[in-house]
Amino acid sequence: MTMTSQEKAKPIKIGDIGTACEVLCPLTPADLPPLAGEEPEEAFKAVKTGVREKYDYSLDGFSGLNLPVPQSREEEDAIVRSFLRGLEKLFSRENNWGFLQPTTLSTEYCMQCNTCNDACPIYLESGRQDIYRPNYRSEVLRRIRRRYFTPAGRLLGKWAGADVELNWRVVYRLAELAYRCSLCRRCASVCPVGVDNALLARELRKVFSQEMGIAPEAIHKAGTVQHLKTGSTTGMMPPAFRDTIEFIEDLIEERTGRRITIPVDKKNADILLIHNAGEYLAWPENPAAFAILFDAAGINWTLSSEAMGYEGVNYGVWYDDIQFARIIAAQVKAAKNLGAGKIVVGECGHAAKGLLCIADRLLTGDLSILRESCLPLLESIVTGGAIKFDPSRNDFPVTLHDPCNIVRLLGIVSPQRNILSKILPSGRFREMPQAGIENYCCGGGSGFAIMNSQNFPEWRNQVAGRRKARQVLETFADCLDPAIPKYYCAPCSNCKGSARDILQQHYGFKEKYNIHYGGLVELIVNAMPGLPQPYISWDEEF
């Protein structure tokens, strides 16, 4: 049976996680806070008969993992045993040397103040459902650990704060809960003692992937596995990459009237530029803009056509240390093979997180290489004076989305703003109500943007992406007139994908309000004088 509305009105306690009911926290559009000027959401689509019986939807009525319902007591017990093995390894230095210390500290030092609640966009936009509190899944983890791995918990149970008894429902719901967090780490930024609930969500994902083989197909099979097999998560292989570069050179000539030869496999270049390969297929105007700008600035740079060398993403950063390490090593090898001075990551947040931050403990000795985000480099080009820009070419309202992994994690806050101050007319840039390290996730972080199985996209669009939609409406509230074109600048491929799927396709902001999205480098090139036509075309989908 599904929990009744009266039961749901009561707080869902930590110990309720294993309750035998059809849906622990059934979510409806009526639970979601309304968006100003927007019609109420339609009812969530019913899961087809046969599918609901086959897969587990018992957390909130949605499935992001396609977990098959166990058919016997033996299968149920095997799920629990496998999870406990993985959990034991999670707190072992031998098995988790890279993240053991922060994982242990975040597990042991929470004060239960729940300051994190009001920092979480998913919790807020769900109508404050208890299961989406950042601390809910973390506290389930803590109590399981106490119950099964401490003498006090084994002996005293609930009297020692160890009142979660494992069954298959607990394991499956915890797995789904690990994918109800976008890993934006906004909660960690407000915690008075530095507890990182997003890290714990990610570490849970690691247990499920590395020990139990549980991960979203889009992230694992069609993600890291395909990446290692073909050289890219898109499946693009080296011959296709070279063809794509020729297409981009044609695009540049069409837009600028100049033929630019994009350097590929140039030896000993100062910079190896690595894009999210999705840019080449979905937004080729972005890598084209980099080529135009670098050519004008006289940058000594190159791309790589080696498999793994033209794809900057690393989905392992979201869920699996082993896959992450394999991809990082191959990416750095491609740079080393060309003798590049350093790797510069294009406009992609999680690619920057992986290469610039998480990889630090892996890239030692012969694997050591300089790595940086493109944003400081773009800032130096724009503010250096070698290229004169005409801000009047960007005479329209612009706001800036701060990608979580670039801004909150890496602390790159000022360069993009300094750039905009040079390429926009006075008064055209407007900050979001919460900006910089306080900004909200695009709604597609941690893999959400590419997870399209079952009914998960409905949850992503209406819950995970709702706060960003609210921000955009608030930011452009004084100019929502569709006669005024507006630009949502998102210097991240993943965030642009979310803007396309959530803001444009789900909420219809382009049709209703003439709000467009795109990257930062396109705005820079649009402000370059001498172009025969604007680089940004409002008639195209960015």
Give an overview in words.
It holds the Pfam family Fer4_8. Keywords: 4Fe-4S, Electron transport, Iron, Iron-sulfur, Metal-binding, Transport. Residues 101-130 form the 4Fe-4S ferredoxin-type domain. This is 4Fe-4S ferredoxin-type domain-containing protein. The chain is mostly helical and 542 residues long. Helices cover 45% and strands 5% of the residues. The strands form 2 sheets. The chain has a 4-stranded parallel sheet. Strand 3 (342-345), helix 17 and strand 4 (370-373) form a beta-alpha-beta unit. Helix 14 (285-297) packs across helix 25 (520-526) and helix 18 (374-383) runs parallel beside helix 20.
Layout of secondary structure:
Elements: H1 5-9, H2 51-54, H3 73-90, H4 100-108, H5 121-125, H6 134-149, H7 151-156, H8 168-178, H9 186-190, H10 197-210, H11 220-230, H12 238-256, E1 271-274, H13 278-282, H14 285-297, E2 301-302, H15 316-319, H16 321-338, E3 342-345, H17 349-357, E4 370-373, H18 374-383, E5 398-400, H19 404-409, H20 414-423, E6 429-430, H21 456-464, H22 466-475, E7 486-489, H23 493-506, H24 509-513, E8 515-518, H25 520-526
Helix pairs in contact: 3-10, 4-10, 6-10, 8-10, 11-16, 12-14, 14-25, 18-20
Would you tell me the overall average pLDDT? 95
Global shape: globular
Counted by DSSP, the helix tally is 25
Broad structural category: mainly alpha
Summarize the main sheet: 4 strands, parallel
Number of domains: 2
**Helix fraction bin:** 40-55%
Distance between the termini: 45 Å
Rg is 24 Å
What is the β-strand count?
A: 8
